[in-house]
């Protein structure tokens, strides 16, 4: 009986693992080629599975897309929480969030930022959009905290977050798992620009 | 005869004008709702035309998408050229390009950045992608010039451009023609962040 349970647990673990691999590989492909241009056939091929095997785990391509969004939300949520407990001022909380998020996305999801929510079902879309709003609000509060504690220059927090989210959303175009930079290094470079800008330090 | 020519010219002008309006309104809708989720019916309604009237000017939705990309390329090309002749150093050329591009896109195309090229035909896609490469190369050369003339802090030009293009690509999410900021003001705020970053000036 315990052997049976063990076997069942192992099978469940392996199935969860396989599901996760499909989500990650599909997410990377959606990010690279666009959701509509990526077929499940492409995704299956990139993992060495058959299309039928993928249908064992997922109803359709849209279900996988929503799972990708849910994984990205988990990564973002953890990025926020860790930054909040580790950062000693507003600037550190803000930049740690950016760093944790980039490192998480590059390692977990091959960094596909899923900007386009138009392919999601209405209830899925509002789930994703409402998380984004909360995420951005939390980021804004870090900027406000930083302005108050002197670690961030006075600015309009809303616009600071727009500029930062934009720079982060562009990371997929310069990060490649096979490329010259690790996720950590990409995060460092980006945070450097966000912190100091282009102007020469005098 | 001259009256006839006049009439023909006027008709041609008006037809060109109408075509341009369709391109702009469709571009804004594609940017807002995604290309695949936008129907020509939606676009027609937003202009007060019938769908049939749109088919008089364009073969299909894909033709309009490519026209949007071509308009964006014209705006970007002009942004570069004007910046090159007006900027007195690398920093000015770089930030003027960003400013001209944002002002052009907000006024001409309601600022839809068309990141997704997957809906374009292969030859259209390579046209767009090869222009993007040239645009980014020119921007990089402005950064190199700025580092050499002391107007930009030493950095890796490639990564600076990635961060800048990212921030620019996010503008549609904070610019609305009916919103609180003009295109000029959006450009000012963004250039401020790109120049000085978040760190307090000491």
Automatic annotation (TrEMBL), chains A, B:
> Does the keyword Transcription feature in the UniProt annotation?
yes
State the UniProt keywords alphabetically.
Answer: DNA-binding, Repressor, Transcription, Transcription regulation
Alphabetical list of Pfam families matching this protein: TetR_C_24 (PF17932), TetR_N (PF00440)
Superkingdom field: Bacteria
Which SUPFAM superfamilies does this entry report, sorted A to Z? Homeodomain-like (SSF46689), Tetracyclin repressor-like, C-terminal domain (SSF48498)
Q: What PROSITE patterns does this protein's entry cite? A: HTH_TETR_1, HTH_TETR_2
The residues that make up the annotated DNA-binding region are 39-58
Please list the residue ranges annotated as the HTH tetR-type domain: 16-76
| Annotated protein name in UniProt | TetR/AcrR family transcriptional regulator
- Species whose genome carries this gene: Futiania mangrovi
């Amino acid at each position: 009986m315990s052997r049976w349970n063990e076997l069942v647990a192992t099978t469940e673990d392996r199935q969860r693992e396989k599901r996760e691999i499909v989500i990650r590989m599909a997410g990377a492909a959606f990010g690279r080629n666009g959701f509509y241009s990526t077929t499940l056939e492409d995704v299956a091929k990139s993992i060495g599975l058959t299309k039928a095997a993928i249908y064992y785990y997922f109803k359709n391509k849209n279900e996988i897309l929503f799972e990708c969004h849910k994984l990205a939300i988990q990564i973002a949520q953890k990025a926020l929480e860790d930054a909040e407990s580790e950062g000693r001022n507003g600037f550190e909380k803000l930049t740690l969030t950016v760093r944790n998020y980039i490192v998480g996305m590059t390692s977990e999801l091959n960094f596909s930022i899923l900007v386009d929510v138009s392919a999601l079902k209405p209830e899925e879309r509002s789930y994703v959009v409402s998380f984004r709003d909360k995420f951005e609000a939390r980021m804004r509060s870090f900027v406000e905290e930083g302005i108050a504690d002197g670690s961030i220059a006075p600015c309009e927090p809303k616009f600071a977050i727009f500029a930062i989210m934009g720079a982060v959303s562009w990371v997929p175009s310069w990060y490649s798992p096979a490329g010259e930079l690790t996720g950590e290094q990409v995060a460092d470079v980006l945070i450097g620009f966000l912190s100091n800008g282009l102007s020469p330090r005098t």
